[in-house]
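Final report, closing paragraph on structural work. Over the funding period we assembled a curated collection of sequence-structure pairs, and we close with a single example.
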Amino acid sequence: MREHGIDRQAGCLDFRFGGVRMRAFGSGALFIPAASTLVASDLHLGKSERIARQGSQLLPPYETPDTLERLQADIDHAAARTVICLGDSFDDDRSASHVVSSFGNRLAGMGTDRRWIWITGNHDPDPDIGWGEVRQEIQVEGIRLRHCAGDRCPEMSGHYHPKAKISSRGRSLSRPCFLVDRDRIILPAYGTYTGGLDCRESPLSEIMRDDASAILTGPQPRIFPVRTLRPSRACWSCAQTGRLLDSPSPTE
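Its predicted structure, as stored:
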């Protein structure tokens, strides 16, 4: 069904940004058909290892294989020739070494016969990966891709782990979301262990335009004007990133 330029299909939602067709997957990945490019942000691979290494609260160590399994499914579904991981792919640079030593063959297999680009983030400014291209930013179809939103547009970024809350059939639902306006797309965090920032909170409320839309992830992505969404109650508080939903915090 087409509504206001939006194409709805099972498990994804197509829209246009900067004259370019985009496909938001329910998983939180974004596909650019014209460039056969799949983009995912904030995988935070190795988070459970990093937390254990630092002696913090232990998490079940399954987030890396779970995240990679979902990413592989999206790559296969899209038949993507290029994959761009939009920063904070690893929970820190030491996590990158751990993930490569433990899952290197699986990762390398995912990159076979396609271009793979690792954009650096604040968590992984200098990852030792050993394959693929490591960049600070890249341009695709006239759109600048980077980890954190900047002052040059149009652009696509991540970093903030946006989430949104809606009410449906008498129940409240909080989900990761894409934020979209005429200048920017901010992707949700793709990783299994990632918190989120309410899309109505600062700094997202200052970064995005007043007419921004949120595309909620899930089995059938749904789009809402941000101004109509409900404020969300915070589980975490962080002076630098505003309110966070759902522990553990992405700023840990």
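The radius of gyration is 17 Å. The chain is about 20% helix and 35% strand. We thank the funder for supporting this effort.
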